[in-house]
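Form P-L/3: holo structure prediction, ligand S-adenosyl-L-homocysteine.
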Amino acid sequence: MTFDELRATLKEQHLVLDDAMMEKLDHYLHLLVEWNEKFNLTSIVIPEEIIEKHFYDCLIASDPALFQHQQVLDIGSGAGFPGIVWAIAYTGSSFTLLDATKKKCLFLEEVKKALDLSNVTVIHGRAESLPATMRETYDFVSARAVAELRILLELGAPWLKIGGTFIAMKGPRGEEELRDAHHALRALGFGHTEIRKTSLPNEEGVRLNLYISKERKTEKRYPRTYADIVKKPL
Ligand code: SAH
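OUTPUT (holo model):
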């Protein structure tokens, strides 16, 4: 997918990117390619594939109505997916990008500086060790390719406000993971789940994005330690 195709395809879906946003995506693409030669940030290295499998994939998982003056936390943002892409497209909202790997955070800081993204904050840390002051403060929590849904929900729920939405970007196994997460959803205070099924234009892979609303407070005993979360998922 080229940048022109990205813009045209998104426009059909009522997501309009202006020239400044397109320039920032282009700059970001160059930084990804440049840094990838030194550090292994993403296995996808061909520009047209980055545009489709990273940029387009992240943008179709967003919803213009969702991001107006909101606080968004992206868990395990990695090289910036979906966090940086969303921050470029939704300048009215604030994005906190959290990652456990120092190298990824250095890259994210570099992108923030180079693209002048004043709505981005980078935190080097682990989702399960959230500071008490940040508990239940975010309108949205997102995660793509970080962990299985049951695990993700426990990592993310404590950060999310009541009335907020967890956005889990999943692939074909999304529905199965959702079934397995039945108990976790209840235990952590989640309610209604909306499933949006899409696919990438030149790829067969199905994308299953889940929008899960938080309706009740998450008990203080969550999140448990990472070892417990993984060993005994809810
Ligand atoms: N979301 C990105 C990166 C996925 S790779 C993408 O879609 O391309 C998973 C990332 O999650 C890694 O960068 C890893 O450092 C981070 N990660 C894994 N577990 C984490 C945790 N508990 N807290 C914070 N970051 C975590």
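COMMENT: The chain has nine helices and seven strands.
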